[in-house]
Amino acid sequence: MPSTAFHLALPVDDLEAAETFYGEVLSCPRGRSSPRWTDYDFYGHQLVVHKVDSEDLPAVARNPVDGDAVPASHFGVVLAWDDWDSLQSRLTTAGVKYAIDPKTRFAGRQGEQRTCFVRDPAGNHLEFKCFRNPEMLFATEGFEYA
Fold it and tell me: Cys-Cys link to 33, which of 38, 84, 91, 125 (CB 3.0-4.6 A)?
């Protein structure tokens, strides 16, 4: 577990579908649960999905980034380069549809990264990315992106 783990809670309208996605497709170990929520170990962080009625799921706002309409509300994880490739294989094998197809952003520039967006069955957006140079994760010098 990281020295400081985050806790994130998300609404879902189907706990079984969430279990298939988080537990099976993403291979997140399941933690505690009740009839209304389930904990997952999301890459060392605590993710909790809470069952809500479908009409209570939030709408999606988007923001333009590098030619894509990126969901403004999303979460994810920064993986090692090779781990990102492995995840892409698992997502493809599971038939997961991309909200934003895998691509390289800022190619040949500082902050070059590979990224993709998927949705869980409730419509929550997840971004998985990796940096060519992991030290660029929080770098600010030389960044001028629209």
Answer: 38
